[in-house]
Amino acid sequence: MERLKPFIIPGFCLRCQGCCRFAEQETVWTPHLLEDEQIRLAPHTKKIELRANPAQGNFVCQFLNQKDNRCKIHGIHPFECQLYPFLINRQGKKVYLSVDLRCLYMKENTDLARYKDYCEYLNTFFNSPEVKKNLKANPQLVQSYVHVLDIFEIML
Question: What's the pLDDT score for residue 112?
Fold first, then answer.
């Protein structure tokens, strides 16, 4: 799948301590890999693993460098990581593009015209035949999330 253009401004994520950190080791929030990402990341991993972080009482992605808050595989990071804080969310039989409003950047920027433009960009992206085919071939990307805002339905 093509790389997504980023929404969050450069540098913001490096100051935040939210992404790539999880309350539980087994969670729906752990990024899931596309089939081709599993092959591409094979030298590193077969799936994203969360490692205990006793100092903060949580779990962190195996690729997070906690010293500088950078992703060790940023140039090849998974599609779900590129998409975040947007998510592919199953609600019953419907699938939505949703946004995690716990993301500090999203808390401050959902009223911007740039946000609305980005949602349109994602709507076009998710309506392309190639992306729909990829989502059907990778059902692990469609999860049920809570405490998110559904933006638009993705027709698979």
Answer: 84
